[in-house]
Automatic annotation (TrEMBL):
Chain sites annotated for binding NAD(+): 8-13, 34, 97-99, 123-126
UniProt cross-references to SUPFAM superfamilies, sorted A to Z: Glyceraldehyde-3-phosphate dehydrogenase-like, C-terminal domain, NAD(P)-binding Rossmann-fold domains
Alphabetic keyword roster: Amino-acid biosynthesis, Cytoplasm, Diaminopimelate biosynthesis, Lysine biosynthesis, NAD, NADP, Oxidoreductase
Residues involved in (S)-2,3,4,5-tetrahydrodipicolinate binding: 154, 163-164
Keyword Methyltransferase on entry: no
Matches recorded under Gene3D superfamilies: Dihydrodipicolinate Reductase, domain 2 (3.30.360.10), NAD(P)-binding Rossmann-like Domain (3.40.50.720)
This protein's record includes keyword Lipid biosynthesis: no
Classification lineage: Bacteria, Bacillati, Bacillota, Bacilli, Bacillales
Gene Ontology biological process terms, A to Z: diaminopimelate biosynthetic process; lysine biosynthetic process via diaminopimelate
Catalysed conversion reaction: (S)-2,3,4,5-tetrahydrodipicolinate + NAD(+) + H2O = (2S,4S)-4-hydroxy-2,3,4,5-tetrahydrodipicolinate + NADH + H(+); (S)-2,3,4,5-tetrahydrodipicolinate + NADP(+) + H2O = (2S,4S)-4-hydroxy-2,3,4,5-tetrahydrodipicolinate + NADPH + H(+)
Protein name: 4-hydroxy-tetrahydrodipicolinate reductase
Primary location class: cytoplasm
């Protein structure tokens, strides 16, 4: 039995994660972290299952009271970083779905996990199809190094570019020479027109109501283009990956950044 605490249970992702943990035989929902509802139970929260799971507003109090194995964090960038650090300091293995971690944040958490000899996972995207999109993009970039990334999300998203787009660019950077794309004399006559620049690759972020999470990686070569696209049309699409990460984090003793290291 793996005892799990979920931070952000009222959110889009948190609600689905609560449901998934309650429905999984080998998981037990030990508690949830919700800054607005400390002292209540899950059953008191609107739209959440009728379960006698304690709600804590203070993460350290939650870890001490419930002694969980795993923290699943689905909050926001600032809170996710604080929760991850507190989890590791209190002997709890973090599974972080929250995006907005910089390379320096990942490095800092990696050192902390190593010093505590605890498994930890930061997963910019839990959807299996999105992980395959990233892997396929890395393979394609070996042969077609000119590439741009277009990510599309709902308009409630706090961070841009998405964690998935940044991770995709990092994976591509591992296999291609650094290069500047477009015309060498290219100039933006409107700032931002060419998007964000990661090692010469451009990322374009769209935010619209009606979208969930979508990404297209477009490669260009002489006389041809290749498009690799993934769409999450609901948040249940992420749950098999969350489940897999909760199991895997119990088997490892270091930080893993990205589920592509787990799905070989
Ligand atoms: N890795 C992946 O596959 C995926 C990752 N994500 C990421 O997960 C995160 C959550 O996304 P989503 O569910 O759509 O966002 P929501 O805004 O729907 O949910 C975020 C939740 O976090 C809560 N929260 C905010 N601050 C705190 C805090 N200090 N303590 C405890 N809870 C807090 C909010 O509650 P309130 O503010 O009301 O207190 C809210 O319920 C984002 O970073 C997103 O990018 C999303 C989808 C997939
Ligand atoms: O905020 C979201 O919704 C999502 N965030 C993640 C990201 O930033 O890549 C994963 C997925 O795209 C949904």
């Amino acid at each position: 039995m793996i005892r799990i605490v979920i931070a952000g249970p009222r959110g889009n992702m948190g609600k689905e994660a609560v449901q998934m943990v309650l429905e999984t035989d080998q998981f037990e929902l030990a508690g949830v972290i919700d800054r607005k509802n400390g002292g209540k139970t899950l059953a008191d929260l609107q739209g959440l299952p009728d379960a006698a799971v304690p709600v804590f507003d203070d993460p350290v109090h939650c870890f001490q009271e419930t002694q969980p194995d795993v923290l699943v964090d689905l909050t926001n960038p600032d809170t996710g970083k604080v929760h991850m650090k507190l989890a590791l300091e209190n002997g709890v293995r973090p599974v972080i779905g929250t995006t907005g971690f910089s390379e320096a944040d990942v490095e800092e958490m990696s050192l902390l996990a190593e010093s505590k000899e605890l498994g930890a996972i930061i997963a910019p995207n839990f959807a299996i199809g999105a992980i395959l999109m990233m892997k396929f993009s890395q393979t394609a970039a070996r042969y077609m190094p000119d590439v741009e990334i277009i990510e599309q999300h709902h308009d409630r998203k706090l961070d841009a570019p998405s964690g998935t787009a940044v991770k995709t660019a990092q994976l591509i950077s591992e296999v291609r020479e650094k290069k500047k794309q477009g015309h060498p004399d290219e100039e933006e006559t409107l700032q931002g027109a060419r998007g964000a620049d990661v090692d010469g690759m451009h990322i374009h972020s769209l935010r619209l109501p009606g979208l969930v999470a979508h990404q297209e990686v477009i490669f260009g070569g002489e006389g041809q283009t290749l498009k690799i696209r993934h769409d999450s049309i609901n948040r249940r699409s992420f749950m098999p990956g969350v489940k897999m990460a909760c199991e895997e984090v119990m088997r490892i003793g270091v930080l893993v950044y990205g589920l592509e290291h787990i799905i070989e």
